[in-house]
C-alpha cells in the first residue's frame, strides 16, 4: 500500500460520509425539489433518465466552450458523442464529473441527485466512472493486482488496510477479467500489455467499482483495427448493465456500437439521431467539411 493509495482511500471514504451527511442535513434525506428520498449510492431513474443536462454553459476567459447544452441519457443506454475538435466534448465530461463547474445550467444524476452540489471524488463514489484518453494502469503490478487495487480503493482506507477479497469480490474479479478478455493474462505485468489491453484493463478497474454511468473519452484512439473491433464487442456487452457515454472520432467504431448519436458543435447539440441520420444532416456535413 503506497501513501498515495491510502490518501485516495481516505479521500473517498470521507467523501462518502460527507455525502450522506449532506443529504441528511440539507434535505432531511429528501431532495427539496422532488420530495424523493436520496440514498447515497442509489440513483432514481424512475423518470427514464440516468443523466440530465439542461442549458449548461461555461466560459474560459470569455470563450464559451459549452453553450446552453441540453442532453439526457437513458438507463442502460450506450450514447455516442461526436463532433469536431474543440466542440466541447471533454469539457462536457469535466462538468459531469465535477472537474469543471459550469457558470449556468442544471446537471442531474437520475432525477434526484444534483451533481453541481458535489465534488469530483463524491461524484466518482456515487457511481460515475471516467476513462481518460491515456491508459493509467500501474505498470509494475500484474493485471490481477491492478483489479484488486481498484477494489481496495473503492472500499476506503480502513477496510483496505485489512483487505482480503471475499468470495463475492473474487467472483466479481473473475467476471471482470472475462469481460475485458484478460483472463489468460492475470499474472502478466500491466506494463507488458499492448496499448489496447491496457485500455481494457483500465476499463476493468472502473468496472470493479460497478459504476452506473461510464464516461469514455476516445477509448479506441491508438488501437489496432482488431483491438478496436474487440472494444466494440466489449462496449456492447456493457450496455444495459451500465449506461455509457462514449466520445469517439473513429466512425467505423461508432458504426459498430451506436444507437443514438449526438453531434456537439461549439458547445451545444447540433444534431441527434441514428448515425445515418446525423451523417446526412446538412448542418453536420457543413461542420465537418467546412474545416
Ligand atoms: N481549462 C480550460 N481553459 C481554457 N480553455 C479551455 C479549457 N478547457 C477547454 N478549453 C477550450 O474549450 C474548447 C472545448 O475544448 P474540449 O472540451 O477539449 O473540446 P473537444 O474535447 O470537443 O475537442 C476548446 O476551444 C478548448 O481550448
Ligand atoms: Mg476532447
From TrEMBL:
<keyword id="KW-0067">ATP-binding</keyword>
<dbReference type="InterPro" id="IPR032823">
    <property type="entry name" value="BCA_ABC_TP_C"/>
</dbReference>
<keyword id="KW-0813">Transport</keyword>
<feature type="domain" description="ABC transporter">
    <location>
        <begin position="51"/>
        <end position="291"/>
    </location>
</feature>
<dbReference type="GO" id="GO:0005886">
    <property type="term" value="C:plasma membrane"/>
</dbReference>
<dbReference type="InterPro" id="IPR017781">
    <property type="entry name" value="ABC_transptr_urea_ATP-bd_UrtD"/>
</dbReference>
<keyword id="KW-0547">Nucleotide-binding</keyword>
<dbReference type="GO" id="GO:0016887">
    <property type="term" value="F:ATP hydrolysis activity"/>
</dbReference>
<dbReference type="Pfam" id="PF12399">
    <property type="entry name" value="BCA_ABC_TP_C"/>
</dbReference>
<protein>
    <submittedName>
        <fullName>Urea ABC transporter ATP-binding protein UrtD</fullName>
    </submittedName>
</protein>
<dbReference type="InterPro" id="IPR003439">
    <property type="entry name" value="ABC_transporter-like_ATP-bd"/>
</dbReference>
<dbReference type="InterPro" id="IPR051120">
    <property type="entry name" value="ABC_AA/LPS_Transport"/>
</dbReference>
<dbReference type="InterPro" id="IPR027417">
    <property type="entry name" value="P-loop_NTPase"/>
</dbReference>
<dbReference type="GO" id="GO:0005524">
    <property type="term" value="F:ATP binding"/>
</dbReference>
<dbReference type="Pfam" id="PF00005">
    <property type="entry name" value="ABC_tran"/>
</dbReference>
Amino acid at each position: 500500500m503506497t501513501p498515495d493509495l491510502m490518501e485516495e482511500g481516505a479521500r473517498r471514504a470521507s467523501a462518502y460520509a460527507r455525502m450522506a451527511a449532506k443529504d441528511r442535513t440539507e434535505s432531511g434525506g429528501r431532495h427539496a425539489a422532488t420530495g424523493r428520498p436520496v440514498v447515497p449510492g442509489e440513483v432514481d431513474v424512475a423518470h427514464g433518465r440516468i443523466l440530465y443536462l439542461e442549458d449548461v454553459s461555461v466560459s474560459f476567459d470569455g470563450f464559451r466552450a459549452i453553450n446552453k447544452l441540453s442532453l439526457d441519457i437513458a438507463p442502460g443506454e450506450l450514447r455516442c458523442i461526436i463532433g469536431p475538435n474543440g466542440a466541447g466534448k471533454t469539457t462536457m465530461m469535466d462538468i459531469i464529473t465535477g472537474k469543471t463547474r459550469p457558470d449556468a445550467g442544471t446537471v442531474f444524476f437520475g432525477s434526484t441527485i444534483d451533481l453541481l452540489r458535489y465534488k469530483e471524488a463524491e461524484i466518482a463514489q456515487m457511481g460515475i466512472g471516467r476513462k481518460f484518453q491515456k491508459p493509467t494502469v500501474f505498470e509494475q503490478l500484474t493485471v490481477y493486482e491492478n483489479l484488486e487495487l481498484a477494489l481496495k480503493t473503492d472500499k476506503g482506507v480502513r477496510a483496505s488496510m485489512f483487505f482480503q477479497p471475499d468470495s463475492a469480490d473474487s467472483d466479481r474479479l473473475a467476471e471482470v477479467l472475462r469481460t475485458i478478455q484478460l483472463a489468460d493474462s492475470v499474472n502478466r505485468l500491466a506494463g507488458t500489455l499492448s496499448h489496447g489491453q491496457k485500455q481494457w484493463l483500465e476499463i476493468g478497474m472502473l468496472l470493479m467499482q460497478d459504476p452506473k454511468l461510464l464516461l469514455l473519452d476516445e477509448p479506441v484512439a491508438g488501437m489496432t483495427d482488431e483491438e478496436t473491433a474487440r472494444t466494440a464487442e466489449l462496449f456492447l456487452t456493457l450496455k444495459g448493465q451500465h449506461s455509457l457515454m462514449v466520445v469517439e472520432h473513429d466512425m467505423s467504431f461508432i458504426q459498430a456500437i451506436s444507437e443514438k448519436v449526438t453531434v456537439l458543435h461549439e458547445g451545444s447539440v447540433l444534431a441527434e439521431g441514428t448515425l445515418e441520420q446525423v451523417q446526412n444532416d446538412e448542418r453536420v456535413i457543413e461542420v465537418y467539411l467546412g474545416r
